[in-house]
């Protein structure tokens, strides 16, 4: 998770620079909102990706019982 935090900080800084170059100094609130939006989205995506890898690696995916699975499918 540490490397995703580093990537997130880099992307927030890059997006702020890109927005400043394309729009100029609009409002400080615009840059705060953009930084929070990009940062929260990146950290949420990395946390969910980590949960997917944790679930797959610990065997929780195989432990799910499918009640709709047909037991007589091969007969």
Query: Can you count the beta strands?
Result: 0
Largest sheet: none
Order of helices and strands: HH
Distance between the termini: 48 Å
What is the count of helical runs?
A: 2
Shape: elongated
Give the overall pLDDT as a whole number: 82
Helix content: over 70%
What is the total domain count?
Answer: 1
Give the low-pLDDT segments.
Answer: none
Which helices and strands occur, and which strands form pairs?
Blueprint: H1 2-23, H2 28-58
Helix pairs in contact: 1-2
Structure description:
Helix 1 (2-23) runs antiparallel to helix 2. The protein has helices at residues 2-23, 28-58. The chain has one domain (2-54). It contains two helices and no strands. The longest helix has 31 residues, at 28-58. It is an all-alpha fold. The mean pLDDT is 82.
Short note summarizing the structure:
By secondary structure, this protein is mainly α. The protein has helices spanning 2-23, 28-58. The chain has one domain (2-54).
Main traits of this protein?
elongated
């Amino acid at each position: 998770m540490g490397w995703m935090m580093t990537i997130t900080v880099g992307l927030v800084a890059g997006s702020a620079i890109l927005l400043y170059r394309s729009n100029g100094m609009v409002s400080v609130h615009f840059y705060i909102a953009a930084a929070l939006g990009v940062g929260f989205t990146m950290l949420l995506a990395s946390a969910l990706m980590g949960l997917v890898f944790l679930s797959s690696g610990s065997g929780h995916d195989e432990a799910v019982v499918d009640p709709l699975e047909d037991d007589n499918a091969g007969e």
